[in-house]
């Protein structure tokens, strides 16, 4: 049997010239760590492009959510106005002979009105609270003041406030994502 040979390469011997100062042979540099300036700039540009694409999408999402809240608020208030009118027609809500039977204000829907058919005059509530217009810019404005109110006597093309609240609308010139002005919702 043959003796096993060592297959490892022999170690290079350092010559006395390599270790002297001012030697012309280059010494191996330690491995560099970190990122170069170009790599950092490319990364920043990529992140900026992604952010510029995501920002309009986020704005669109916020606007869709506000429009959904607007639809729900309008439906809730219009349902309450119709329920008030029905209660007035049934004689449960007091109304004068010259009144239409619609509420005098939005606040009366949330504050309640006495049930004239009940001996204890228990209050009838049509809303828990008046919803806020989600597109109204000032958060300190009372919720009822964020809506436009149309009286029964005014026409749909030029809604005006009057003695009662027949309908509510958004007092804004903006147009919804569906192309219909908010005022006409």
Question: What would your notes on this structure say?
Answer:
Strands 1-2 form a two-stranded antiparallel ribbon. Strands 3-4 form a two-stranded antiparallel ribbon. Strand 1 and strand 2 form a beta hairpin. The protein has helices spanning 37-89, 107-111; strands at 113-114, 123-124, 148-150, 167-169. The chain contains two helices and four strands. 31% of the residues lie in helices and 5% in strands. By secondary structure, it is mostly helical. The mean pLDDT is 86.
Give me the Rg, rounded: 38 Å
Morphology call: elongated
Q: List the quaternary state of the chains.
A: single chain
Low-confidence stretches: none
DSSP summary, beta strand count: 4
Number of helices: 2
**Which structural class fits the helix and strand makeup?**
mainly alpha
Cα distance spanning the termini: 99 Å
Strand order of the largest sheet: 1-2
Instruction: Give the proportion of residues in helices.
Output: 25-40%
H/E element string? Answer: HHEEEE
The average pLDDT is 86
**Main sheet: strands, sense, barrel:** 2 strands, antiparallel
Strand content: 5-15%
């Amino acid at each position: 049997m043959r003796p096993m040979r060592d297959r490892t390469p022999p170690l290079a011997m350092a010559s006395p010239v390599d270790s002297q100062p001012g030697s012309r042979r280059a010494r191996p540099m330690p491995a560099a760590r970190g990122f170069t300036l170009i790599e950092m700039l490319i990364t920043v540009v990529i992140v900026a492009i992604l952010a510029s694409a995501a920002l309009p999408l986020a704005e669109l999402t916020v606007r869709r959510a506000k429009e959904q809240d607007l639809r729900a608020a309008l439906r809730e208030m219009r349902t309450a106005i119709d329920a008030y009118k029905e209660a007035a027609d049934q004689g449960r809500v007091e109304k004068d002979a010259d009144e239409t039977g619609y509420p005098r204000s939005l606040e009366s829907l949330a504050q309640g009105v006495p049930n004239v058919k009940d001996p204890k005059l228990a209050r009838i509530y049509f809303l828990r609270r008046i919803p806020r217009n989600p597109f109204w810019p000032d958060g300190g404005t009372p919720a009822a003041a964020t809506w436009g109110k149309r009286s029964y006597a005014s026409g749909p093309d030029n809604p005006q406030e009057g003695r009662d609240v027949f309908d509510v609308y958004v007092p804004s010139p903006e147009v919804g994502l569906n192309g219909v002005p908010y005022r006409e919702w």
